[in-house]
Amino acid sequence: MDTQKTQRTRRKESRPGEILDAAFEEFVEKGFAATRVEDIAERVGVTKGTVYVYFKDKEALFDATARNVGQWLFTAMDQIHLDPATSCRDQLLTFLKEFYRIVANDRKSREILRLMLAEGRRFPGMVDRHYNEFFEPSCRRLQGIVKQGILTGEFRESNVQDMPEIFFGPSLLMTIWSLMFEEQRHFNIERYVAADLDLLMHGLATRPAASLEPIRPPSSQDGL
Amino acid sequence: MDTQKTQRTRRKESRPGEILDAAFEEFVEKGFAATRVEDIAERVGVTKGTVYVYFKDKEALFDATARNVGQWLFTAMDQIHLDPATSCRDQLLTFLKEFYRIVANDRKSREILRLMLAEGRRFPGMVDRHYNEFFEPSCRRLQGIVKQGILTGEFRESNVQDMPEIFFGPSLLMTIWSLMFEEQRHFNIERYVAADLDLLMHGLATRPAASLEPIRPPSSQDGL
Amino acid sequence: MDTQKTQRTRRKESRPGEILDAAFEEFVEKGFAATRVEDIAERVGVTKGTVYVYFKDKEALFDATARNVGQWLFTAMDQIHLDPATSCRDQLLTFLKEFYRIVANDRKSREILRLMLAEGRRFPGMVDRHYNEFFEPSCRRLQGIVKQGILTGEFRESNVQDMPEIFFGPSLLMTIWSLMFEEQRHFNIERYVAADLDLLMHGLATRPAASLEPIRPPSSQDGL
Amino acid sequence: MDTQKTQRTRRKESRPGEILDAAFEEFVEKGFAATRVEDIAERVGVTKGTVYVYFKDKEALFDATARNVGQWLFTAMDQIHLDPATSCRDQLLTFLKEFYRIVANDRKSREILRLMLAEGRRFPGMVDRHYNEFFEPSCRRLQGIVKQGILTGEFRESNVQDMPEIFFGPSLLMTIWSLMFEEQRHFNIERYVAADLDLLMHGLATRPAASLEPIRPPSSQDGL
DNA sequence: TATGAATGAGCGTTCATTCAT
DNA sequence: TATGAATGAACGCTCATTCAT
Question: Structure pTM?
Fold first, then answer.
């Protein structure tokens, strides 16, 4: 009994991170408005007041949460390394497969999208940040590869070179599927990725049906 | 007096619909939890209590709202008529262009996605309904066209025939873009649609690059 | 039981006034910060929420309360009628006796001072209002009488003609006494007023000690 | 190291006093309820917990604060020395001028009044103490002078001899003025004191208008 | 002695919902 | 059918207080 009551753990350093993780789960599950600060605290095993020791208010907590998960994604994207010595086709494949890997394995990177759509109007800064730090740079990279591929003769010319965002379409669908149906409806990621890449490569290629069987996408441990 | 009463009657009969429209705007703007019943009422020009005359509670109102907008989409999809006498390629193009037309011109059909992601957990029935009435049937239709096209030799065999949902990827991206950035960031729909269809047709086609310039997508009056 | 529960009284018109009265009592007893909105509501016999039907927040309620009581005082002061046909001495006596009457009989007019001192920093507008609507005009009136009295030879010249606020000193002391000691310490108002006026008249008079016994001040029913 | 320790020691010894001073400023500015212990601590440059090392709780801190400032006043009043060899008129003048000097120069002695009115109900002991240690004895002294003056024939008989508190009226008005309007509205203390004493002396005197020009009151360095 | 992380009771405020009219 | 005054549960946030260090 005594020990119970005295269990006021002291760990200033780890607390913010713990709270941020808990907050992420709650915000993602209920949305900003329906999330109770107390539930977040409970998840961490502290009381309401503790949350306010580290965050000014619920909005600041949400903002920090969004930055926190955003960082994950930005970092992961930055770590997609493309070897300029390889063909543009390979670079494109690598980029997209890596992106699929991220999105398939990391639930956080998927839930970001939900936050974006659900709370973007209340937190426009969050949307801007993701546009500037994730979407725009990624599109630039993709566009670079496509344009280069046209120069080398690997890819045919088409409107795609000015619309690189289109490459994110299929992975987005997979993400949305995951967010909407969760564990309830099965989705064969590997075949889906294969279909996407196969379709894409054939769509972009200069030559007819090159025999480029799509490389296996990474297995998802995250239970998409 | 007569007109008065007639107006009143007409008013009464249309009330639920007016409320549903207002509710849609509010729910879409703020989300379920952050939406105030009073704001919905105000939009219609009635008082809070009136809303409760027609709807049991806020949840019922949301549910009805979701059904209401869903109906729009379901109906629109049902009206995509495909001529079996035309080529599979044309049928596919027609289907996708019609879908783009719907999604580009009708903000409601886009906002549904937001509701789905933001409130799907609270209203799983809504998600199921859309899966059953929109997504699944559409995928079946698409799959049918693809399979048929393979039989006729128009399309090559690929994983795509089992993953028809992939066709929705690019239009989904456009939708998400619209939902996230709204008027703030320009998006050239026509070229985007062209790029999508062009890429797709080349990706699916058996023969190299037949001269199938993508038909102009419908102009959007909706200001995506 | 049923009647109890159904006793949702409906009286939009009288509510604000009732609440203002209750708020006054609470604010005066506990101060702004320590007053609970719920206690105010309870005093009226409604619930917390009802208060917010009529007042935006606690500050607005305080402000309205202050205006409400202030009005009492301003009106009462305006109704002090001085007959210009009478001597300046009589006019001065009348004014002061009337003021004593107000302050002695009306607890509200006394408690205003408490609010002023206790909450003036938080509600500077309230202080300004009282200065402009009560203090300054009253001083002007008093100064007018004194100056006139000097012209007519009733009063001798002195610094007092430029410091009419000094006339409020003794009544202020009585007020403070009341606010501080309430029922606990006896205070003989009548003799106090007599002493004040007597001292004043002798202090102002040109001639020695004219036989001006101070008129009895009004009996206080308010239990100062 | 030595200086360090000495400083520390000195620091420790003076801590309660420092806290009391800080507490006074905060309580006076915000009132008891609205004052945050943390703000007091911050003023001293320590943390919240430290305050609780020296004071049991906020109430105890307030109580100590009130005693502390009260002591100032009590001591100052005790130091008003009256020469029994001088005339009663002079003694009365001396007393009042000294009191004006205290009140005009020492903000604390004025703010006490605010605490008294604002928090008197919560801390009745504070009020009693001031009554017993300041007000009552002062009135006794004043009454003594007046009665003596009547015996010596300096003062005429009047109700004032039983109502010595009236002498505090004008200085109270000055105090209230200061508390309410602070620096915002000018107040000419010297002329005000002159007017008060002049009026008083004429009011009390047996003989007509003795040529007793009021001695200059002490200049106020406190910026009333 | 001093700290500051943690607590939790408490209060202001909101808003879905009810119900008498 | 429509109103809107009233309700009261719920939640964000504050802050006095505690206590292990």
Answer: 0.89
